[in-house]
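Explain this fold:

***
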Amino acid sequence: MRLALKLFVVLAAASPLFLALGADAQPARHPGRNGALSEQEVEFARIAWRYFENNTNGDTCLVNSVDNYPSASMWDTASALGALISAHELQVLADDAFYDRVRCLLVTLRGLELFEGELPNKAYDTRTATMTNYANEPAAVGYSAIDLGRLLIWLRILKEREPYYAPAVNEIVSRWHFCNLLDRCGTLYGAMPQAGAILSLQEGRLGYEEYAAKGFQLWGFRTTAASRVEPVATARVAGVDVPYDARDPRTLGAHNYVVTESYGLDGIELNWDRSDDRSRDDRTHSDATASEFASRIYEAQEARHAQDRILTARTEHQLDVAPWFVYDTIFSDGYPWNTIAEDGRFLPASAAVSTKAAFTLWALWATPYTDLLLASVRDQFDPERGFYEGTYEATGEPIKVFTANNNGVILESLLYKVQGKLLRVGAEEAAPWAAPNASGRCQIPARQRSPCGPAASR
């Protein structure tokens, strides 16, 4: 592994924020599961970490998004960073190995070639850290605001838990130029090349949009429009009023997926709190809307099981057959329990009990139903490769795919049981991340769209 960056750690002085197993001082109780891991749960953590042992490239420390496929998105890089921190805090990964991996990953992130010199590309080859398309062919294909929001959350968690690395993390983010990602109204925009121009497109729907916005808020950005839940509507699903994004996918071309993952990650990482909430009381949630919506997402899935005897833990997931990826939703595009491909095709046979969704719900809600969910996926692993993506609803057969996101979210969920909210923001970070970098190019937006609204080519 490359050990540049001139980062020298005195390992004897470094320790996890909380000892994960058998600690004398535990944090205050939090919603869901509490306490030290059982022997079986420790084994779950070891199995999930095995994926990252197998799929981390030693030269770049980027992690394959899917087993043995040398490509990584920024969302999956965030999942890998979350797995790295969680495995260390759970004492599955030793100090020296953790610090080596952190140094190596920060070196790579600092040196990434950026799309249009602005922001990380949507995908990189994990062997070379060069920009690629989703077929892992050399290409600059744009950036995702949603992916980068998640990565900003985990870079901030790293800063809080390992302050020694704060200057290196700041240096990484200072290379990024956010002028075209946020407008003056705080709307999030992704980018892609098209017909010789760069097309900026509003990005995110209810759930993912608000979650990603919190990542930008943690670094001082105002995301007023992206953080506003409106336009929102509700659909009656299994007797529960489930919130969904009221923007029409037929006219705007973006599906309004309602899934577990965005709400679950907000709970595990941020406790359904506002980004400026420095409280350590995990029993209350300063983002009451996020907390309420998450509860309804859980309740609808529990109610479906009560009514139809179908175990339900739905979120987006990989497949072991074409089209290889689906959004397995509680509600989408006008229909409950809608399982669709990215192009909108209805694929009910691809519905699954997602392993990461089952662990997430189990961590956040300590109920007999989530006990059943965990029991249904607890044996769905290969001890040498990690946890399977899930089990098909119709057959109970495993989806024999291993991914960074699935195994990373499992590790996060286990750490949440021990510690509660994973982000502990210190008061020293009250000032916004606002200074321009040395090149003079803006970080907080300077080139504004006028008026706020649909993005255009640039």
In short: DSSP finds 13 helices and 18 strands in the chain. The CA atoms of residues 242 and 296 lie 6 Å apart. The chain has one domain: 28-423. Residues 28-423 form a domain with the Glycosyltransferase fold (CATH 1.50.10.140).
